[in-house]
């Protein structure tokens, strides 16, 4: 098949900034003689006529994309276009459009692990506790507010959030107790910049699990900035480890997110599939 790129667009991501990005990307590809088609949502049932898919959006966009096309085998690329771009940063760091175009046209690929949480695919991470509460709270807000709404919710939660009891079991963990944060990470960053699992890699066949134990108000203000900087693993308020199969349960409804998309359940079954997707990077 000759090269034909699907520019898969979430036109609502990044308060609409993704539309202009996709149009510029399409024009630059055209100028270089590469065929591409912009595909806004709702997306088609199949992308079989394309040789690869370049997805413009944030973490939520890639999550929705992979759950619509769970068995997609063509090379994928994520372009920064959302409010939360943690998975983008994992693969491409601070690359701008021109740098991304160069990476994409070279076409070098590698296999990236993916996870399943109650049957739903994720590539970056699952977060419960405080993160789940933030995701649930933001559901009722206008997404165009973006990062401002997110940070206001985080600050309010530092004062008001109450920890629940959890049981997390797996090959290298058997935790029973309350937790402020509870994450299963395939990537290293979540929440628009919090380095929850510093140094973690998405192609090593392992998740990193991270738990922040309950702490008072002062402890929250001290420790959450450590998470943002990725310097929290030496703190006694945190425990972490590695594994590929987990069960998370609670005596209350678990509010959680997968790659920023909110869900709730009574129990979570989380497993890893090594090298499930092929990414251009």
Can you characterise this structure?
- The chain has helices spanning 17-31, 59-68, 86-92, 97-106, 130-138, 147-160, 217-229, and strands at 4-9, 35-40, 52-57, 76-80, 109-117, 120-122, 125-129, 164-170, 173-179, 181-185, 207-212, 238-243, 245-258, 261-280.
- With 281 residues, it is of the alpha+beta class.
- Helix 5 (130-138) packs across helix 6 (147-160).
- 43% of the residues are buried.
Brief description of this entry?
This protein has 281 residues and is an alpha+beta fold.
Q: How many strands in all?
A: 14
Can you tell me the overall shape? globular
Largest beta-sheet details: 10 strands, antiparallel
Task: Give the helix proportion (percent range).
Answer: 25-40%
Structural class: alpha+beta
Order of SSEs: EHEEHEHHEEEHHEEEEHEEE
- Multimeric state of these chains? single chain
Poorly predicted parts: none
Query: How much of the sequence is in beta strands?
Result: 35-45%
User: What would the average pLDDT be, to the nearest integer?
Assistant: 91
Number of helical elements: 7
> What is the radius of gyration computed over CA atoms, rounded to a whole number of angstroms?
19 Å
């Amino acid at each position: 098949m000759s090269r034909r790129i699907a520019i898969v667009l979430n036109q609502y991501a990044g308060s609409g900034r993704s539309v202009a990005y996709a149009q510029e990307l399409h024009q630059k590809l055209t100028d270089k003689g590469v065929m591409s088609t912009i595909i806004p949502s709702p997306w088609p049932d199949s992308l079989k006529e394309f040789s690869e898919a370049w997805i413009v959006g944030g973490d939520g966009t890639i999550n929705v994309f992979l759950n619509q096309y769970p068995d997609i085998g063509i090379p994928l690329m994520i372009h920064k276009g959302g409010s939360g771009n943690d998975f983008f940063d994992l693969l491409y760091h601070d690359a701008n459009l021109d740098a991304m175009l160069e990476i994409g046209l070279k076409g070098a690929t590698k296999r990236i692990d993916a996870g399943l949480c109650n049957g739903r695919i994720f590539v970056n991470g699952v977060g419960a506790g405080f993160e789940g509460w933030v995701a649930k709270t933001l559901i009722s807000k206008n997404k165009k507010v973006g990062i401002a709404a997110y940070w206001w919710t985080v600050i309010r939660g530092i004062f008001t959030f109450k920890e629940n009891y959890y049981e997390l079991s797996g090959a290298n963990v058997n935790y029973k107790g309350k937790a402020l944060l509870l994450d299963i990470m395939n990537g290293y960053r979540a929440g628009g910049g919090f380095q929850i699992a510093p140094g973690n890699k998405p192609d090593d066949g392992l998740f990193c699990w991270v738990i922040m134990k309950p702490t008072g108000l002062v402890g929250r203000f001290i420790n959450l900035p450590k998470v943002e900087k990725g310097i929290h693993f030496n703190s006694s308020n945190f425990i972490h480890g590695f594994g590929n199969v987990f069960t998370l349960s609670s005596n209350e409804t678990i509010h959680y997110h997968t790659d920023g998309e909110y869900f709730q359940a009574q129990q979570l079954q989380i497993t890893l599939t090594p090298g499930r997707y092929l990414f251009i990077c």
